[in-house]
Amino acid sequence: MSYVVALTYVHTAISLVALFLGIPAILNLFDGRPASKWTNWFLVMAIATTLTGFLFPFSVVTPAFITGIVASIIFAALLVARFVFRFHGWWRWVYAAAMVLSVYLLAFVGVVQAFLKIPFVNAFAPTQTEPAFLVAQVGVLAFFGIVTILAIIRFKGVVEEALA
User: Fold this and answer.
1) Closest CA to 146 of 97, 102, 112, 109
2) What is the distance between the alpha carbons of residues 76 and 139, in angstroms, rounded to a whole number?
3) What is the rounded distance in angstroms from the CA atom of residue 149 to the CA atom of residue 38?
4) pTM to 2 decimals?
5) Angle 3-30/91-117 helices, nearest 10 degrees?
6) CA distance 13 to 49
7) What is the number of other CB atoms lying within 10 angstroms of the CB of residue 15?
8) Mean pLDDT of residues grouped by 10 in the chain (164 residues)?
9) What would the DSSP string read from start to end of the chain?
10) What are phi and psi for residue 143, nearest 5 degrees?
11) In angstroms, how far apart are the furthest CA atoms of the chain?
12) At 67, phi and psi to the nearest 5?
């Protein structure tokens, strides 16, 4: 088995675990719990996804590389909000938004990969320029946009109540 094939399996497994751990991590925001075992494991796995993505050989900047850079910036903001500013002021909004956006990026890439690798799904948009692909990605974006707004509102309110 080649390095790239082995890395692909490991990266994919880590990504799927991170995506599934992201669900309870987001739900924790709605309960006002910024840190739990789910959140901590999600962060470990999501950051590992980003790091393993940078281990793939590349010679030009690709959409995957740009996604990794965006994810890194989001994680940096999230970690600063949590560990440096400890959710004070508008940093709680940054934290909540960054948590949801990091899960969104995993879902975004998951949709891309589904259209590339799953034959049944690929039949609907083999070149990823067809309407089915656009509808799927806009649907995922809309869903996570709503969840981001709700998480910011709910996490903000619960944290303010706890600090009062």
Assistant:
1) 97
2) 27
3) 21
4) 0.92
5) 140
6) 9
7) 22
8) 93 98 95 87 97 94 95 98 92 95 98 96 96 97 97 75 50
9) --HHHHHHHHHHHHHHHHHHHHHHHHHHHHTT----HHHHHHHHHHHHHHHHHTTS--SS--HHHHHHHHHHHHHHHHHIIIIISTT-TTHHHHHHHHHHHHHHHHHHHHHHHHHHH-HHHHTT-TTS-SHHHHHHHHHHHHHHHHHHHHHHHHHHHHHHHHH-
10) -60, -50
11) 57
12) -60, -40
Question: Would you say 58 and 65 are in contact if contact means Cβ atoms under 8 Å apart?
Answer: yes
Cα–Cα dist 144/102, whole Å: 10
- Amino acid at the residue 7: L
Length of the chain: 164
Residue with tokens 């034959």: 119
